[in-house]
Structures are given as C-alpha cells and as structure tokens.
Amino acid sequence: MQKTCLECEDKIVGRVDKKFCSDGCRNAYNNKINKDRSNMVRNINNRLRKNYRILEELNPVDKTKTSRTKLLAKGFSFDYFTSIYTTKTGTVYYFVYDQGYLPLDGDFYALVKRT
Q1: What letter does residue 107 receive in the DSSP assignment?
Q2: Residues near 31 by Cβ (< 8 Å), separated by ≥ 6?
Q3: Looking at the record's lineage, which domain of life comes first (predicted)?
Q4: Cα 69 versus chain centre, distance
Q5: So what's the pLDDT on residue 39?
Q6: Is 109 a residue whose pLDDT tops 70?
Q7: Is the residue at 5 inside a domain?
Q8: Helices (DSSP H) in the chain: which residue ranges?
Q9: CB atoms within 10 A of CB 95
C-alpha cells in the first residue's frame, strides 16, 4: 500500500509510520491546523509585549508614578497583564512579567519593578 503526504499528497518514501514527505509539508500542515489558536496567542503576546515596553519606558528606575492619560496615550491596555499580586493589607498590584502598576487615587498609577 502506497502512503501519500497529508499536505501535498506526494508519494512518501521511508518509514512505514511517516505521514509527510518533508519537514516543510509537516510544518505547513500543522500551521494550518493551529492557525486560529496561533493567531489568538500571537495577538495576546503582542499586546503583553507592548504593555511591557510601555511600563519599562515609563519606569526606568525601580519606582515611579504616572497618569492613566499618559499610559493610554502610549497605547497601554489595562486588560492584558500576566499576574496579580495582593499584599497582606489588600493592595492589588497588576504585573506584566516583572513590571507592575498599582492604581492610585485620581487616575494615577504607581509603577514598580519586581526584583
């Protein structure tokens, strides 16, 4: 029985359990299958990277303060963060990897870096 490649349908030569004629066909097939999931993950990762760059730019030292307006003007999205840290007193910090922010009164934010 002759096996054919799942991607291009060319004849497969080699092992009996082989499904693809080449690495290129294997990659193309898997990329097609995972396209929707990959796009979603890629978009979220891009958003997280952008948020991280903004926090890093506005917080060159370990601690600073900025306004919500400045964050939004740079394109910061408050919907995307990697973790939440709650202190013993109930203060909630939002982190994008090691860069964090704490909502303060009057639309201001304390920017911190986790060490």
Answers
A1: S
A2: 38
A3: Bacteria
A4: 24
A5: 80
A6: yes
A7: no
A8: 23-33, 35-58, 68-73
A9: 18
